[in-house]
Amino acid sequence: MRRAAAGGALAVLFLLAGCAAGEVEVPAPAPQGRAADLCRTLVDQVPGTLFGQERIPVRPESEFVAAWGSPTIALRCGVPRPEGLRPDSQLTVVNEISWLPQPADRPNLYTAVGREAYVELSIPPSYTPPAEALVAIGGLIGREIPALPAGEL
User: Fold this and answer.
1) What band does 75 get if pLDDT is binned at 50, 70 and 90?
2) If DSSP codes are grouped into helix, strand and coil, which group holds residue 128?
3) What is the domain extent for residue 121?
4) Within a domain: 42
5) Mean per-residue pLDDT for 11-17?
6) Signal sequence span per UniProt (predicted)?
7) What are the φ/ψ torsions at residue 135 (nearest 5 degrees)?
């Protein structure tokens, strides 16, 4: 399994050799209450393709996770607040959605912040520019996950 360290937080995403063909292991978050409801709706509406890659099954099955292609692009909705998120964090804003890129020098993990649920999108470096996925998923986030009050992350 590959692990990507990001700002002190450990994000575990990606392939296990023992998975069935075309299936990836992506640890499922466990959002509660309203965040869980929002995430179910979001994941239910993700596109069937991203970067031209087809959506693939995840293990364990989760209504809070989606994945595409190989190398795997993974989305997890309802993740905890990123440890590296501070009021002075350098954010990438794409179509009014604020993303925390990690690691800062060569990001491959983007977390949508300032919303009622945090949404994590892992984009391997072979998919460029990452903005293509940030736009596609950001549009869904903008429609399905309400913004927090101004100034809150």
Assistant:
1) very high
2) coil
3) 3-144
4) yes
5) 36
6) 1-20
7) -70, -50
